[in-house]
Amino acid sequence: MVLRACASGGKRPARYAAAGICLGCLLWGAVVALGLGAILKASVLAYDVVKYTGAAYLLWVGVNLIRHPRQGLQMDGVTPVRGAGILAFRRGLVTNLLNPKIGVFYVTFLPQFIPPQANVAADCFILALIHVGLTMIWFAILIAASVPMSHLLRRPGVVGALDRIAGFVFILFGLKLTFSKA
After folding, report:
1. What is the dihedral of CA 31, 36, 37, 39, to 10 degrees?
2. What is the domain partition of the chain in residue ranges?
3. Predicted pLDDT of residue 80
4. pLDDT digits (tens, 9 = 90+) for 23-79
5. What is the mean pLDDT of the chain?
């Protein structure tokens, strides 16, 4: 998602996509810290609702990218940088929030690093903050490495091709999520 935003719109939309993804992780971290993430682990129905909603969203985005690829960066009279940034942020956030595997990952992975006498909620959220911090560093490196190529990748034909490729990737992720086990 960050690479697509960077390639088609430059570093600003990529930063927005990264911010959306990181905010989604923080929200999942808060949910898990409050104990609600355990519901996803314990309830097949709750997990399936989030899983299939997320898969449907990924499939919807993928199909729309394939059917209606952009012909350039100007969309509906919106300034490309601002419009692309807001769209990238929303896509990053929604895609992350509708992925129950992040919640399950936090529920199963983070507690093993919390000492028995610690405040579980606070320490769990601190670990989620550390994860988001590391993710932000990774995204910064990824964006910095991608920006030099972005001017080439902004050509109208390339933007459309990138949208179609991203659409297929989103469809594959949606199908993988649909048929994955908890």
Report:
1. -160
2. 2-179
3. 53
4. 999 999 998 888 876 676 678 887 788 788 878 888 988 999 899 987 765 544 444
5. 83
Q: How many CB atoms lie within 10 A of CB 105?
A: 16
Indicate the pLDDT class of residue 6, thresholds 50, 70 and 90: confident
Give the Cβ contact number of residue 131 at 10 Å: 20
Residue that the structure tokens 């993988």 belong to = 176
Which among 163, 108, 154 is positioned nearest to 12, based on CA atoms? Answer: 154
Picking from 8, 2, 21, the residue whose alpha carbon sits closest to that of residue 140 is 2
Cα 158 to Cα 75: distance, rounded to the nearest angstrom: 16
Tell me the whole-structure pTM to 2 decimals: 0.70
Q: How far apart are CA 51 and CA 178, in angstroms?
A: 7
Residue type, 86: I
DSSP letters, 58-70, are HHHHHHHHHHS--
pLDDT for 103: 77
Asked whether the beta carbons of 167 and 61 are under 8 A apart, the reply is yes
